[in-house]
Design a protein that fits this description.
Number of strands: 7
Structural class: alpha+beta
Helix content: 40-55%
Strand content: 15-25%
Order of helices and strands: HHEHHEEHHHHHEEHHEE
CATH topology of the largest domain: Muramoyl-pentapeptide Carboxypeptidase, domain 2
CATH architecture of the largest domain: 2-Layer Sandwich
Shape: elongated
Largest sheet: 4 strands, antiparallel
Distance between the termini: 42 Å
Amino acid sequence: MQEQLEKNIGRTQKKILQNLLQANTPLRVEALSQILNISRNATYQHMMSLERDGLIERASIAQTKGRPSQTYQLSQAGRHHFPKHYALFANLLVGLVKTKMGSQELDTCLKELGENLATEFTDRIEGLKGEALFNEIASIMGELGYESELSVMPDQETFELKAHNCVFHELAQQHEEVCSLDIALISKLAGKQVEQCECVVRGGTFCRFRVIKK
């Protein structure tokens, strides 16, 4: 989706986004028209396209000597259009914790993070059991970016969750403890112990988690 959006953004539209970013304040079409040295009409058409794509949004109405004029600003999606190095920061942070506190303490911290994340979905799984519960867990993981699916084993009591996308792929390649977050997340949601049977970072086809029957 993001890659396709990048392809659809022309040079002039990129300049509009850059100017809105650098101005750090809403701008009128007229102001951008002067900056870009193109007609107001052409600027307006570019603005409408960017607004349709969700990269800019309407802000306040500017009071001018003439009639009031609409101003525009970057949307949250527009700000995300510019490079963000979350993976780099996460790798530096996890590496620092591991160096200062050790692998075991890092593992403990990541498990706690996974459990804390699970509590955000408590309302959605309350009262659910069996296959209905695990279908909801698969749905939650999908929303988090794991692209997961549920498999019910022949005994009808054992469940496996397959995640086709590791959302921490680059981080997990550097720090294998990161998988503890996923395991803790699923365990907390399921209310049962979970084991990881396969890991995409370590040569698996996908990340596969199995609920251990009590």
